[in-house]
């Protein structure tokens, strides 16, 4: 049977209409035959709402994409060409805890790389590995395209502990957002911008920026130093870079780097939100509620513009262009999370990096970077150590390893505070941490 | 002429009697013919006091070591076999500023790896490179044995920008102190302890501990976790490790790791000292004053026991056993700062690392480590990035690079604070930062 | 002034009409304003013939490309965007010696990687480095595109000892020829074939072959094993591969691999040619003579079809598409010789490799390969050792180093024979080996 | 129970008296309690002869070493501290075939790295891996000390496919022989010589030679270049090095390098022996016969001096000093085959290399070498590719892989000849190649 079969795990997500819109727009080049939206029991209501909207969108567009839903991923997987994962283990309530518990102790939560992000990793990694195991059994040649955060950590885990064929790619909207921002700043089309990306997920740098083939890195750095350019996603606090720092760096940091290089200011902003009950997770929860109200409207048959505020802008573009380039063996260049394989000197060959790749039918092939600029190699390696130690804790359920992971996180100021955070977060997420069973029983 | 010629730059240091004692004790195996103590004009008085003591010590011991002094190192260098550097550019007053200025902004000073250490590096690196240039001209085959802090950074700088023959070794008393502490804890002689060291200066880990050939790493870790063992130098605040962290790490951290893993507590202790005018630098300044009073006593002809309190315990042992092993091609194992050359995977081959080496007439040859434990690789790389960026700032005098170095230091919580510290410290040390001339003039 | 300025050193070569045809065909995308053909005094007659033909070709095509000639490259270089080198130091007579002298001792000559190739390297490397020095002075931002064999060795030499900006690319028609052969075998257009190349010049492997995005490597291997497919250039003896070897290898060898894996048979064929006075060099000399007779015809205003027999098929395509992709920042994938930079694990980062690259305005960026297949890593490293040792001999003129280079060449069966070849070849090429002056004088 | 238990597999070997003598001499430092000599049914007679001699030697020496024999290694292994392997699968008759079959086709046999060595590997690797499996079950903490050739290939195989704890060391008498030769040449004791070894088994180089701590490499190179020094084992043909080659190399080749650098002459010598029925294997077979006659003499109670001629001089010294240094955690330096772990840049971290190591209770730790000299890196990598491909063939029994291994061997001049050798040798050794069952059945 011709056409592509896609399975989206966490299909009830508010992002799904973006994805559906992406598939509709690209139907000519990427003929999706079946889109399976999979969710868990707790997500059934949302799944119903989203899948109905998806069906209306497809119908309105007049493309023959079949929308299926199921609560059993094993029903969906057989024959899949691509499996996308956009799950949130513990839903937004878990994220609220990830953010509020650290903040209650004066510490950054940060749902991807901070103490909160560590717990997102502890909850998510084992689930994704289970999905990967099902893929191995039911559709072993399918590409696993992961959006679930922390996306770099998840990719690392699947590369190390998942299928032998390593058919996994981690995606993020940060790099594409940086490209879009440059395009906007130069008043040109996105297709005329190319950035050499290298680093890790939420820890990626633009080493060179090309506009219509001209290397404009220095211009972009200068505009950034003057506060005229800002490539950050909307969900990140807008704290000003110090001009001389940006010039000294000479490459383009991503929005998340503020957490590491402007830690004090970021923390202050987050503490202010915390005290008002307006942490990002809380805001998102309200936004989502509104979105689903919108989605329910039986007259809505396009992606509603309000979705943009949700923060995941360009996810759909990133995902659809990746899937399309793999499907079409396009050989174009895209930034994704994939196995390093020597592309960045000094990072283990078998670790995941976020890097510009040539995308072929055989997946992404990183473009060689060589050594990272000296000034940023350290923090990149630091986060990689944190990611790998967290994965080890996630799989072993070992408390001591978890404390080490927490302590080496650059946003945690001491192991004593780390221990407090660890204990509270473990307790708060107990239900989603089956690998820590022995620890919970031994207390 | 037979016998060894040693030139000690910064010879007026209060540590010199330790060194002299070391040479006396080892005279049989290491026949020092001439010891040249070199200092600068400002250090003349101390140089006179110390050299007189040294002469009395030598005479009392009855060994034919000639003690020479000079204020012109170029007079001393010709024919030298070993040149040791124990300089302190700007003397203790500069160190006091290194410590107090950051603390005045609520930030760790830390005279080796913190903001203060960065400035120690900015002041020291160009001077050592000048010394190395003189060595190249006057005694090109001499070994440069550096004690001046930050010793790892200095070694890195000489390896990258100094003599082609790379005859430089950086020394520190931290590793030997850890061996001594294990020996004491097990109630055995130092010679029966061997530790596999790897990392960077003041960022070194004991990967394995052997006592009489038995791998006792787990025992030492457990004792450390229980607070029964502590390998730290006396000059580091005694904050307790969290038991589970130490067990999770599974290797032996050095005392300085507290600054990174117990940052909050260390900062609190230092702030308390700061408010009492008792930062380490201030305490040391008083200790030194007392020591020099003692040294003046014409009846004193041995190293006075009070020197132990000064903090640099074992420096003499570390230095003399290194020099002796090179001289005698002993082939024994010692931890030093030297070129990595692939010994630690992931760190550039041409960077300095602190590592257990076989010591031969051709200098130290690192024992292969392979990959560092995942959990600590990140922080080691982070410090290496900081060291290299600081060296670049030291040699170029570039303000922006200096701000980047300051910001990526893990003890500096934000680039905004980093900028404040940078500006004040630059001003405070203006006199000792000739490479920043253009910056000072342009303000 | 708009348009591209190209300087072709060795412009009197019989290949030049190919290049001119290439520029004419691509004029829309690559507007060449000036093409400077440079040659030496001995090549003046050929230069006149070729440049006249070039002018007729340009006129017939109706494109405004100015053709200039000069015997002084320093006149041509200022303002150049691209400098192409297609020189043959010592002309074809030198190549005849490169091939006949080894064969006279029962040894493979092989004008690129054998004993003959070594001497081609010894003669060519210093000249190209001189050209690079002139470029540095007169048009430092120009790209040096080298066709002169041994192209990999020349690229290695310029990367290590040439301009700091490393703007050099080495080109060869072997990889493009392999792509063309696959296209022909599958009956499709060249644009639908992509091969992942990795290795060294004349030592390159096709790791994966894609036809319309499908990985057909196994099919190509099987057809090769059955003798149905052969990607070799015409100038290489057609000795049959052993079926099981090709299948065991599992990747696509290039034509030159026969010299290493089918050495005995290749040698027999060459010895037969030698005895008939029909070594490749002698044949080429006759072909060239005929070609220049053709070129003289004032009615000829296109590239004559007889040029195809000359052996350098596709050189023009390879060169023009590379120059065009750099000029247009195309971001397409092409196999070239460039700095490894970690793309192939185990080969020094600063060495030249032949590898599929993304071609941008900043030059080629290798696509990461990781480890070469185990079975071929050894021979690739062997040739790299030979290349680097030959370069060292070329630059130092050291006889002993030259003998080591000769001995480690896999086509030389013993150092005793190596010495005989070395002595005779040195004598034969004395005139072109000024760096060996001391050696010649000391005999 | 105190004392060391050693199990020697292949205990009926004529070398065993050397080993026994070594244990007797070192009884004070290495108190061997039990020595188990294990052999197979076909070796029973020799085992009886050798074990009786061993008992007489022990008794005469008056040391309480118990000598046990068994034909079942699983009886011997429990409780072993060290297991040494000195097996010869197929006995000397197999080696005769390894040498004569290639020579009958005009090709070097070479029982370790040539076509013959490849078959020795094919026969031996699976057997050693079986032994390693038994060790894992019965005495998992024992060190496997392998003498069986090709020792580097065997070590590589056990490191990659054997016990997780990687407690294997490969031994060879070549490096110790080179040290002994230097000692003799300088007229000093062996203990005063140290050589920095790096490379592979039978492909090892002395990078630096120290005599009493002085680097005398240049002197040794010069003496070698003049034919005054020769570090080869007696069993290697004495073909003269070309003086300029040795000087150009600048490091000390081992005896086996003649096969690669003086291939033509070595082959001529071997062909001459072949025609007289005096290949090394045939000579050794006769020597062994004589030795066993001697061993039978009930009055013999020491190692007979005639054993020296056998060729394995210093094996006992190499083995006993290694075992003693591990047992005593001596921390001295010895050349052994062990995991590279980054010590030699460019060779995979998980491959076996022959290298100077610090020997501790935890086994050998290589001293970092960095990059091998450029000229020799290639041939070392070539042999490593051959070793790894041979191991793959040995474990899979794949004919095509075996043909690739045969072809990439530098001593095999073409894949067509390689195929002839492969087919004949497979047939000749059919009985000892159970993994090739499928191939044999399919013919």
From TrEMBL, chains A, B, C, D:
Positions of the Glycosyl hydrolase family 4 C-terminal domain: 197-412
One Pfam family in the UniProt entry: Glyco_hydro_4C
The protein's enzyme class: hydrolase
Keywords: Carbohydrate metabolism, Cobalt, Glycosidase, Hydrolase, Iron, Manganese, Metal-binding, NAD, Nickel
Alphabetized SUPFAM superfamilies for the sequence: LDH C-terminal domain-like, NAD(P)-binding Rossmann-fold domains
Enzyme Commission number(s) of this protein: 3.2.1.86
Positions that bind substrate: 95, 149
Cofactor field: NAD(+)
KW rRNA-binding (keyword) present: no
Family the entry assigns: Belongs to the glycosyl hydrolase 4 family.
Subunit and interaction comment: Homotetramer.
Protein name in UniProt: 6-phospho-beta-glucosidase
Organism the protein comes from: Clostridium manihotivorum
